[in-house]
Design a protein that fits this description.
Beta Polymerase, domain 2, 8 helices, 6-stranded mixed beta sheet, 43% helix, single chain, 2 domains
C-alpha cells in the first residue's frame, strides 16, 4: 500500500507536469487536524484546470494514479443525478487500498471549493487562490437550533413512529424498518447533534454520519443508541423503536430546557400510548380502537 506521502507526491507530480492543471486543493478528513488518521481515509482532491473537457472520460490519463479496483464517475450516472456544475469527478478505489475522490473543476470554481473550512492549498501555479484560514472544522460544527427547527424535529419524530408501528402490525418489516432507519433515525441523530452541541458549547464535531458521537455521550446513552439498531426480527424492531423513543425523549427534554423551548409533551404521551396499544393489538383486530 502506497504511503500517504507517496500518494500526495503522485498527486502533485501529475499536476506539476500538466500545464492544464493550475492549482490543487485538498478537502475532507485528511485536511482536518482533529480527525483520527488511518489508512482508510480518502484523498479528497480538486484539480483546477483551464479546460475540463479533455479530462472527461479520459481512461488513459486516469491510469497514472494507479491500478484501479473500481471507479465511479458521478457525472455519467442517472441515479443519483450528477451535480452538473461544470466539473467532472472520478471516484477511484485502487487495488493497494488507497482511494482518491478527484474533482476536475474549472478555474472559476475555485472560490466555491476553498469556501469549505476544511481546505488545504497543495499547489497554486499562478497565485490564483487568495490566502485562506488554516484548515479547521468550523463548517462542520453543530449549530444551535431555532425554536422552529427544534419543534419540527419533535413533530417529525413522533409523527413517523406511527408509520413504523403500522408496518410492524401488518408484518411489513421492510416498510417498518425503512421509516425507522431513515426518518425516525434522522430526527434522533439531529437531536443528538444539538445535545452534543450544548454539552460542548457547539465547539466539537460529531462527525459525518455520527462517527464521533460515542465520545460525547454518556455510556448509558451510547448503550441506548446502539439498541436502536436491530435485525429484521419483529420483536427486536419493536424494542428498537421504543428505545429510540426513550432516548429521543431524554435528550429532547434536556435540549428544550437548555434553550427555553417548549417540548411536545402531549404529542409524546399520546403517540407513545398509541405505539403501545398497536403493539398489543391482536392480529385479527378489525378496528384499531
Amino acid at each position: 500500500m502506497r504511503s500517504e506521502q507517496e500518494m500526495l507526491d503522485l498527486i502533485l507530480d501529475i499536476a506539476r507536469k500538466d500545464e492544464r492543471i493550475r492549482a490543487v486543493v485538498m478537502n475532507g478528513s485528511r485536511a482536518n487536524p482533529n480527525a483520527p488518521h488511518d489508512r482508510f481515509q480518502d484523498f479528497d482532491i480538486c484539480y483546477f484546470v483551464t479546460d475540463v473537457t479533455p479530462f472527461m472520460y479520459n481512461y488513459e490519463w486516469i491510469k497514472h494514479f494507479g491500478d484501479i479496483m473500481i471507479m465511479q464517475m458521478p457525472e455519467d450516472m442517472e441515479d443519483p443525478p450528477p451535480a452538473r456544475n461544470g466539473g467532472f469527478v472520478y471516484l477511484l478505489q485502487f487495488t493497494d487500498g488507497n482511494r482518491i475522490d478527484l474533482g476536475i473543476d474549472p478555474l472559476t470554481y475555485v472560490n466555491e471549493i476553498i469556501s469549505d473550512s476544511l481546505s488545504i492549498v497543495l499547489l497554486d501555479k499562478d497565485g490564483l487562490i487568495p490566502p485562506i484560514p488554516a484548515s479547521n472544522e468550523s463548517d462542520y460544527l453543530p449549530k444551535p437550533p431555532t425554536a422552529k427547527a427544534f419543534d419540527d424535529c419533535c413533530n417529525e419524530f413522533w409523527w413517523v413512529t406511527t408509520l413504523v408501528v403500522k408496518g410492524l402490525w401488518r408484518k411489513e418489516i421492510l416498510y417498518a424498518k425503512y421509516f425507522l432507519d431513515h426518518f425516525v433515525r434522522n430526527q434522533l441523530m439531529k437531536m443528538i447533534d444539538w445535545y452534543i452541541g450544548l454539552r460542548t458549547q457547539f465547539a466539537k464535531n460529531p462527525g459525518k454520519y455520527g462517527k464521533y458521537v460515542q465520545q460525547y455521550l454518556d455510556p448509558a446513552q451510547w448503550d441506548l443508541l446502539q439498541k436502536t439498531y436491530s435485525d429484521a426480527g419483529y420483536e427486536n424492531t419493536w424494542e428498537a423503536l421504543f428505545t429510540a423513543c426513550t432516548l429521543f425523549r431524554q435528550i429532547a427534554i434536556q435540549v428544550a430546557g437548555h434553550f427555553g423551548f417548549g417540548y411536545r409533551q402531549q404529542d409524546d404521551e399520546r403517540v407513545s400510548a398509541h405505539l403501545a396499544h398497536v403493539r398489543a393489538l391482536p392480529r385479527d383486530a378489525r378496528e384499531i380502537y
